Amino acid sequence: MEPGNITSRACNVITEKLDSIPSEQPKCMIYRVHSHLRKVNDDAYEPEIIAIGPYHRDKTNLKMLEEHKFSYLNLLLQRKNENIEMYASTIGRLQHEARKCYAEPIELGPSEFTEMLVIDGCFIIELVLKYNMVHLRGTNDPIFQMEWIMNSLQRDLMLFENQIPFFILVRLFDLIHEPVPDQHNGQLMVNLFFSFFKNLYPGKVSSENLNPNRDTIKHLLDLIHSHWFPTPSNLLRFGEETSHIRKSGRLIKTATGLRKANVKFRRNEGSSVTTMFDVGYNNGTILMAPMTIEYRTECFLRNLIAFEQYLQDSQTTFVTDYVKLLDCLIDSSGDVEVLSRFGIIDNWLGDYEVVANMVNKLTDSVASPGKHFIYGKLVEIVNSHCKILGNRWMEMLRRNYWNSPWATISIIAAAFLLLLSIAQTVSSTLQVV
C-alpha cells in the first residue's frame, strides 16, 4: 500500500474516533474500583448475597435473592393494586440518562436495562420500607427472620460498584410510597434510608447532617457519605497551609509513642461531638470520639475511601483523612490496646493484632494527605508538643518510677528523706554560724 494511502486511512480512522467522542464528558458517578485498591482486599468490594445494577449481574454466587426481588415486586403490586406498566414506563423514560451514570459501557439493551432498574429499585425501596414499618413485613420473610441476611444486605447495598442512580430510586419511591401529610417526601425518604444504614456507621453520626435535598445524591453510598460530614467548627483545620506537611514517613507518632512523649488520650462523646471525625486537642490531651470496629467496618471504610478517590473536590475526603490519621496512630497491637484502654476503640473483633493489621492496610495504594488534610493543625500542634524535652522526661519518670503504688511510695519516701537531709544540713550550718 502506498504511503499516501496509509496516511489517509489512518487519518480517517482517527477522525471517526474523534467524532464519536461526545462534546461534553458524561458525569459518571458509578465506577468499578480500580485495581490498585482492589488488589489489597478484593472481597471488600464484592457483594456477598445480592447484585444491584449491571456490574455484578448474572454472577452465579449471587442468585440467592434474585427470586426474592420478584417476590417483593409482586407483593408491592398486590398491595397497591397496580400493574407493572406504570413503573416500567416511568423508568423507561429515564433509562438513557441512567446509562450515562456508569463509567463503563453497559452491555444491556434498553428493555433489559429498564427491567433491571425497576426490579432492583423496587426491591431496595420495599426492603427499606419493610425495615422501618413492621406491618409491611411478611410472616415468613427470611430477610427479617435471619439476622445475618439483613447484615449482609446492609453491607451489599452500600458497595461502590453495587449501585443504581439515586434519581431512579427517587422516582420509584414517589410511585410506591404515598406522601405523608405535613412531611415532605424527600425528607421522609432520606430519613428512611438513613435509618436502614445507621448501624453500619462505626462512629457517631449527627442527625443535623441529614441533607433533605435528595436530588443532589448520586447513589446510596453517596447518601451514606453525605450524612457523615464532620463539623468544621470541631476540627483543628489548617486549610491551604497544610501543603508543608511531609508527604513521606509518619505524620505523627503512634499511640504508644505519643504516650512516651507525655501525650494523653481521652474518649470524647460530649454534646459538642457531632461525628466520629471530631478530633480535638487540649493541653497535652488528644480528644477522640469512640469508634466501633466489627467485621463489616473494613468493607464500609474501604468503599467510602474508594468513592472519595473519584471525587473532584479534595476537601470532601474526610474518611480518607481520618483513616490516614488512625493508621499513623496504630502500628501494632500495643497501639490498639492503648486506644482501647482509653475507650476510643470499641473492639468487637477481639484480637488487637487483627485490628492493627486491618487499619494498616486500609491506606495501601491511597494517595497521601493533600493540602486540605483536615487534621493538619492537630498534627502540627501534637508534633510541637512532642519536641519539648520536658514532656519526654515527665513521661519517662511516670513510666519508670510511677507505674506502681510501691514505686510511688518509694519516690515520696526518698523525696521526704532528701528534704530532711537538706533541713538538717541547713540547721547544722546555722548553729555553727
From TrEMBL:
A Pfam family assignment: DUF247
Q: Look up keyword Transmembrane helix and say if it applies.
A: yes
InterPro entries in alphabetical order: DUF247_pln
PANTHER family per UniProt: BNAC04G53230D PROTEIN, PTHR31170:SF17
**UniProt keywords, alphabetically:** Membrane, Transmembrane, Transmembrane helix
The upper taxonomy is: Eukaryota, Viridiplantae, Streptophyta, Embryophyta, Tracheophyta
Top-level taxon of origin: Eukaryota
Protein name per UniProt: Uncharacterized protein
* Ranges that cross the membrane: 401-423
